[in-house]
Amino acid sequence: METAGNILSALFDEQFMKKAQSYSKFFDSWKDITEKNGITAAADHSRIKDLDRGILLIEIDHPGWKQILQTKQTKFLNDFRIRFPELDISGISLMLGSGKPQSAQETQTTQEPSPPAAAAAVEPETESDPSEKGYDAIKDEEFREKLKKLGQKIAVDDKNKNPQ
Length: 164
Prior knowledge:
The chain is mainly α. It has helices at 4-11, 14-28, 30-36, 63-70, 73-83, 102-108, 115-120, 130-136, 141-161; strands spanning 46-52, 55-60, 91-96. It is built from nine helices and three strands, in the order H-H-H-E-E-H-H-E-H-H-H-H.
């Protein structure tokens, strides 16, 4: 079975892949950052939901955790700015989610596929233009939408950094 990274490499160019890996590291960094700030358990009750126009959106599963995270909000912002200066993070917004964060749901239920299972849902692309047709080959709808959003974000970032 091929890894998601191998499949994505086949679908996108090298520059796109470097940015995608940076975003992947960014989304995976939440546990490390909460741990560094002395509230490791917060990672089980919250997650990075999005980065929108420089504002980092953190989803929390309970108002109590929101209050706890607010006490460390400035430290989180500084940590993210140091680790990911290229993302130009200007603020953090803590928002109450509708339930458990996705990371907690994935560990407790078998309905949502883990990343290897999501990667297995991708069929190899044989056409020369994989940009749109590549997305159609992804069976897991949530994974497909996240990849599309990531691609749009990277395209906007490229356009803003390299105006023609």
